[in-house]
Design brief:
heterodimer; A: 504 residues; 74% helix; B: 483 residues; mainly alpha; two-stranded antiparallel ribbon; 20 helices
């Protein structure tokens, strides 16, 4: 048997986290170094998985399978394909940069890193899951540490409220999806939670139509789909920097990913039936999110609502049910994950020095922390979908997918309207440019207020490393999309095969 | 009818015989060893003694898949009963260990003897296959329980708890025995199997069966703290010595469900009323328990209401009348016993130092004792049903059984209740982890016995929550042949 790479990726963080708990609480330096070592190892393993995936074979690779609860057909079953592998890589990057950014945490760092690593294990576990039960198991592991991470280390003003709101929203979504998953399990009559087997269960169409919303919306809550997005900006703002990065960067993708993997791939006929509605809701996400972002004074809320808007693009790509749209959604998940992590990292660094995030009272930070300014601007360009940056590579296919959906699928009663949907969605890009440029101008280029003159300085070398890594990823995808796009496209083709099977 | 004497019958009862021996030894020790010199060793001895009974049972008296009637049909030995007996013994061991440092009980030999008596009664409740045996066992358990609940000398709360427990217990047990006597009156039989056959033949008129069902439900509902027979629970849980609360809320409740299954195997085939009634009780229990728990400020009362809610979850799977449902219940009860014992262990350890059970006083626990706070996190999140802890698989199996039975609406009610549960468990954890400790509070030292007990319980929670396969297989095997 070959090296169990995916298990190693999944369990390295939690092992390191448990190890940290054995340290005496006051050995902060040792704790941080161990955490960084664990994160580096995790990043290394996920890069290893990424480069050793054989795209010519496509499909699920590094598969491992063990019986878990054989009586109910529950197995520990992992494997990655072109959709999950970029997510694994992204999680590795975000945990690595997140630990670097969290170096300054002084209140119980041992527990902080332990919970953060537990969260990472949950996230990895979901991305590599090929068993439905396995997926839920790790999904909920990924949800609950958020509560403590936000409530203990978050922004004092709103943390308790935001943490509870987020946890309840996500758990409600998850348990609703659980009921749907159990219904699928029993309806299939196959006594297995194996998702690859359940793909061939051929559920009756009315069954799929009934249960699809349970599964899809249950997960899409975590992706922040309108009207269940409300927890997300509050949660992002209240969370400590590394957790915001993790949360917006990776956790929201978990929702979109699971909605695609479980909802669309297991209930394709349901997906066909419901997709016009989801496109519509995603459109609201995109436009409404960007307008609300424009109205914010708090820099972190701007980024928080921009996440709502960008996740709308992911949902829209999925909902187009076209190969190019789904490819775009996969790329957007990766691109937005790295981009929003970068944004939150920058905002965290500014807040650490200025102790305020109120945009009008900030200014002139470009001179004080040039690298942060450069990073933020690059993030902004990605966010606007500027060619040459990863956002363009990801968003363009989504719009093409929606357009293509309108061309080919006239049986949907919204089918003819898809071109209009594209046009409306593109407006959001302009709005994005407006709020990003406004923030960039005010925060980095106006005159530095006198109160910041003395105590604002440059960021630490660790912070810089984190920024450079994230910027590097965004530029690499923008300039050479070939290292990821074919990979995602190969899996999007697989999704299409399933969807066409249901349509035909 | 006189059954032939079978020596092997006694082997089945090895754990119970061992319990009696331990009780006698403790009585001797109690006389021989002056009370004033004791620190906490009595509890440790009692715990070890009960543990030996459990080990003997597992090594020598493990029933395979065979189901045998013993002692002229008084007892029924099967895996189902065995699982519950071991569960009782496990709870007994933990309770004895947790009692070893609690003022007012730890130096009293009779306390531990009563505890063993309660264990014995519960074991026989799980074993009984005859309504007379059942009632005897139930009363043995209850009377020991009444005394234990009121045990702490000079504590008015404990005395009140004991009396309340006794009054409610006596009343519901009266109802139960009335129901049993009606069953006997209509069928002329005392063996559960014979009664089931007679009920199946239609010897009991439907109206009478309805009355009988309600009477029996009152008796069992008291044991499992299901609404509307739950009123005693918060007061008794709060007032009784905490180890006793832990014992009553785990072992007593688990065995209550075992008896419920035994009796349902009699009454279910005929009764059209029982299932809607039980479903209603289930929904009421979880909803009321969870809503009331939201408002609690005392941790023992909070756990009391949460245990009412948990009874509701379990009943949800009971009404599916299926092997999967029964297995889910058995598995859930295993996880619940371990988890709730851990939760109460934390409460006991905290109260030893702070002398308080108020949730507000838990503020800053994570700084005063990080590991105790982590143990509390594990226990409470397991109660909330969060992976990778025991409660997650427990809840998933329950919901699976409910969905399989087609009761989608009940599953939805159940999962929404689980959300309510998460809310108030997190509120407690917020106090523990987020709020600062008041000025001048010292760190909390945990005696070694408590560390060991708590570590065993927490590891148990994680093991049940990760390596769930073998345990569920066990539950599934024990569930076979209940109906």
């Amino acid at each position: 048997m070959s090296f169990p790479l995916l298990s190693a990726i999944t369990f390295t963080p939690v092992t390191v986290g448990m190890l940290l708990l054995l340290f005496p609480a006051d050995r902060h330096t040792e704790i941080r170094i161990t955490a960084l070592a664990g994160a580096t190892l995790t990043l290394f393993l996920s890069i290893w998985a990424y480069v050793s995936y054989d795209i010519s074979l496509a499909g699920y690779q590094f598969v491992e399978r063990l019986n878990w609860v054989p009586a109910l057909g529950i197995s520990y079953y992992v494997g990655v394909d072109g959709l999950s592998l970029p997510m694994v890589l992204l999680t590795g990057i975000v945990i690595f940069t997140g630990v670097l950014i969290s170096w300054k945490i002084d209140d119980r760092p041992r527990e902080f890193f332990a919970f953060l690593f537990l969260l990472a294990t949950g996230v990895f576990g979901v991305f590599v899951a090929l068993d439905l039960f396995h997926l839920f198991f790790f999904y909920e592991i990924a949800v609950f540490p958020m509560y403590l991470l936000i409530a203990i280390w978050g922004w004092k003003v709103t943390r308790e409220y935001a943490a509870m709101k987020l946890t309840l929203y996500l758990f409600i979504g998850s348990v609703v999806a659980v009921v749907g998953a159990l219904a699928m399990y029993f309806a299939s009559g196959m006594n297995t939670f194996d998702m690859l087997a359940l793909q061939n269960a051929h559920f009756p169409a009315d069954f799929q139509r009934f249960w699809f919303p349970f599964i899809f919306f249950g997960f899409a809550v975590l992706a922040g789909i309108f009207p269940f997005h409300n927890w997300s900006p509050d949660g992002h703002v209240a969370a400590p920097t590394a957790v915001s990065m993790f949360h917006a960067g990776v956790l929201m993708k978990l929702g979109a990913f699971a909605a695609l993997r479980v909802g669309v791939m297991l209930l394709p006929a349901g997906a066909h039936y419901w997709m016009p509605w989801i496109v519509f809701l995603a459109l609201i996400n995109i436009v409404y999110g960007s307008f609300v972002a424009m109205m914010q004074r708090d820099l972190k809320y701007v980024i928080g609502f921009s996440s709502v808007s960008h996740m709308g693009l992911v949902m829209m790509g999925v909902a187009s049910l076209t190969p190019i749209g789904i490819t775009g959604a996969g790329l957007q998940m990766f691109s937005h994950g790295a981009m929003t992590a970068l944004f939150f990292a920058c905002v965290g660094m500014i807040y650490d020095q200025a102790h305020t995030r109120d945009i009008p009272s900030l200014g002139g930070f470009g001179a004080k922390m040039p690298l942060v300014a450069v990073a933020f601007i690059i993030g902004g360009l990605v966010s606007m979908g500027m060619p040459g940056f990863s956002g363009f590579i990801a968003e363009q296919p989504i719009f093409m997918g929606v357009w293509a959906a309108g061309q080919t699928t006239s049986q949907y009663y919204l089918g003819q309207q898809y071109a209009w949907i594209d046009l409306v969605a593109v407006i959001a890009i302009a709005i994005t440019a407006a709020y990003i440029l406004r923030a960039v101008h005010q925060v980095f280029f106006t005159k530095l207020p006198a109160e910041f003159e003395h105590h604002v300085g440059d960021v630490t070398i660790l912070d810089k490393v984190a920024l450079v890594v994230l910027v590097g990823v965004l530029l690499a995808l923008g300039w050479f999309p070939a290292w990821m796009a074919p990979l995602v496209a190969s899996s999007a083709a697989n999704v299409m095969t399933i969807l066409q099977g249901a349509a035909g | 009818m006189i059954a032939p004497y079978v020596p092997a019958d006694w082997l089945v009862l090895l754990p119970e015989i061992a319990l009696v021996v331990v009780a006698v030894l403790l009585a001797v020790l109690d006389v021989a060893y002056p009370q004033v010199r004791r620190t906490g060793e009595l509890g440790i001895y009692a715990g070890l003694g009960i543990a030996v009974a459990g080990v003997l049972g597992i090594v020598f008296a493990l029933p395979g898949s065979d189901r045998t009637l013993l002692f002229g049909g008084m007892l029924r030995s099967d895996l189902f009963a065995f699982v519950f007996r071991m569960l009782v013994i496990f709870a007994g061991v933990m309770t004895a260990l947790l009692s070893s440092g609690v003022r007012g009980v730890s130096r009293h030999g009779e306390y531990f003897i009563l505890l063993i008596g309660a264990c014995l009664g519960m074991n026989f409740m799980a074993l009984s296959a005859d309504i007379i045996m059942l009632y005897l066992a139930l009363e043995t358990t209850s009377i020991a329980g009444y005394v234990l609940a009121g045990f702490a000398h000079g504590d008015d709360h404990a005395a009140e708890a004991g009396l309340k427990y006794f009054l409610f217990g006596a009343a519901t047990s009266g109802l139960l025995v009335y129901g049993l006597s009606l069953l006997y009156g209509f069928t002329g039989e005392t063996g559960l199997a014979a009664i089931a056959a007679a009920v199946g033949d239609g010897q009991v008129p439907p109206a009478a069966l309805l009355v009988i069902n309600m009477l029996l439900l009152a008796g069992i509902g008291f044991k499992v703290t299901a609404v509307p027979f739950h009123f005693w629970a918060p007061d008794v849980y709060e007032g009784a010595p905490t180890p006793v609360t832990a014992f009553i809320s785990t072992a007593s409740k688990a065995v209550g469900f075992a008896v419920l299954f035994r009796i349902m195997s009699v009454t279910v085939p005929m009764s059209a009323y029982l299932l809607p009634l039980l479903t209603a009780i289930s929904v009421l229990s979880m909803t009321l328990g969870n809503l009331a728990a939201l408002a609690q400020r005392n941790i023992k009362r909070l756990l009391a209401y949460s245990s009412i809610a948990h009874a509701g979850y379990v009943l949800m799977a009971v009404v599916t009348i299926s092997d999967l449902g029964t297995a889910a219940v058995v598995f859930y009860l295993i996880t619940y016993v371990v988890t709730n014992l851990a939760a109460f262990a934390v409460v006991i350890i905290f109260a030893r130092v702070s002398g308080s059970d108020e949730i507000a006083d838990y503020a800053g626990l994570s700084r005063r004792s990080p590991y105790l706070a982590l143990a509390m996190l594990v226990a409470f999140l397991s109660l909330a049903g969060v992976p990778p802890l025991a409660g997650f698989f427990g809840k998933m199996f329950l919901f699976a059984a409910v969905v399989k039975a087609g009761l989608i609406w009940l599953a939805i009610v159940g999962v929404l209740n689980a959300i309510l549960g998460i809310y108030y468990y997190l509120i407690v954890l917020k106090v523990v982890f987020v709020f600062p400790a008041p000025e001048g509070t010292a760190s909390i030292d945990v005696p070694r016995v408590y560390s060991v007990a708590l570590a065993v319980l927490c590891i148990g929670i994680v093991v049940l929550g990760t390596v769930a396969g073998p345990w569920f297989d066990l539950a599934l095997q024990s569930a076979q042949g209940i109906y």
